Amino acid sequence: MDKQLLKAAADKIFADMAGAMTVGLCYVGATTGLFTAMHDKGPMALQAVVDASGLQPRYVEEWLKGMACAGYLTYDPAAQTFSLPEEQAYLLASDGTDHYMGGLFSMATVLLKAAPRVAEAFRHGGGVPFSDFGPEGVVALDLVNRGQYEQRFASYWLRALPEVVGRLEAGGRALDVGCGAGRVCVALAQAFPQAQIFGLDPDGESIAQAQAAAQAVGAQVQFLAQTTGEVARGDGFDLITVCDCVHDFAAPVQTLQEIRRLLKPDGVLFIVEPKVADRLEDNRNPMATMFYGFSVFHCMTQSLANGGPGLGTCLGPARTGDLVREAGFSGFEHLDIKSQSFVFHAARP
User: What's the total number of domains in the chain?
Assistant: First the structure.
């Protein structure tokens, strides 16, 4: 056995465990407001952080030391002060913006709670259904994507489909499949007040949170706790959006066929999926590693729990296109929209 490689392997394990503990510390910092309390304050002594946050001194002290060791805070040994760098604040003390990343830490804590049950599924099959992640699971998913949906969806992403924008401005109909906490629906309703906006999700907790989100801003959205097979087509939809959930479908081809039935003949299906490569060898990076974790502990397992194929978070553009075409769509195209974490497609009946 190569001793240098053995040491490197041990160092890798320690580094990954340190990363896991850092995620927990960052979760605390985001949910308790510690990052916000330190934003734009410069160097702060322990008591200053305690006063600004209103939290317990001993916990704050240990958190500050851990965050300094992890490189999230800078530490001045002579003055014994801690600072939140501007770059960290931009990502972690910015809830509600399109660049906020603090929601990832909430997602990690929710997913790892499912780890023992997922391990049992490795042995016996099945999985953890979406409903078992509870209200906090819906909240975590919302925190991860909320800022981007609110700030980019209607004003940037959807502008890649100008014909759809024109129809919605004129009072068209749009449906968001797998609407979760309703942020896409709210963004569409606010951007296109003349349009009829519908949100669809079979999960009752998601629908409840979506209704609350719409009511909070006075957005006119009709939310349906149904599946695509249960929705009345009516006059059809000009736009159907499927955001970050094609890979979750328990019956992907059937669901896409049902979506195709709901579209108008000239309607468009707008697909948002995680940004990964089609080949495993091109996915050896932190983003794809994170997505594979999301897959094992959430996306794949909840599909398998419902008898689905467990496509997984890293479905990739090629397989997404294959599913769309198998469902009978005549057109499938990649949309040139810049994003660090998502890839975008349009499909036409």
Answer: 2
**Domain with 268 in it:** 106-348
Looking at the predicted structure, is the pLDDT value of residue 157 above 90?
yes
CB 219 within 8 A of CB 189: yes
Answer yes or no: do 134 and 237 share one domain: yes
Threshold 0.85, pTM exceeds: yes
Cβ contact 118:127 at 8 Å: yes
Examine residue 221 and state whether it is found in any structural domain, yes or no: yes
Instruction: Encode 282-296: b = buried (16+ Cβ within 10 Å), e = exposed.
Output: ebeeeebebbbebbb
C-beta of residue 143 within 8 angstroms of C-beta of residue 103: yes
What's the rounded Cα separation, in Å, for the pair 73 and 25?
A: 12
pLDDT in tens, 36-48: 999 999 999 999 9
**Residue holding tokens 């006063």?**
51
Among 29, 58, 93, residue at a domain's last position: 93
Are 112 and 89 members of one domain?
Answer: no
Q: Are strands 342-348 and 331-335 parallel, antiparallel or unpaired?
A: antiparallel
Return the axis-axis angle of helices 103-113 and 134-148, rounded to nearest 10°.
Answer: 150
How far apart are the two ends of the chain, measured CA to CA in Å?
A: 58
Q: Closest Cα to residue 52, out of 35, 64, 67? A: 35
The verdict on residue 101 lying in a domain is no
Q: Cα(201)–Cα(243) distance, rounded to whole angstroms? A: 12
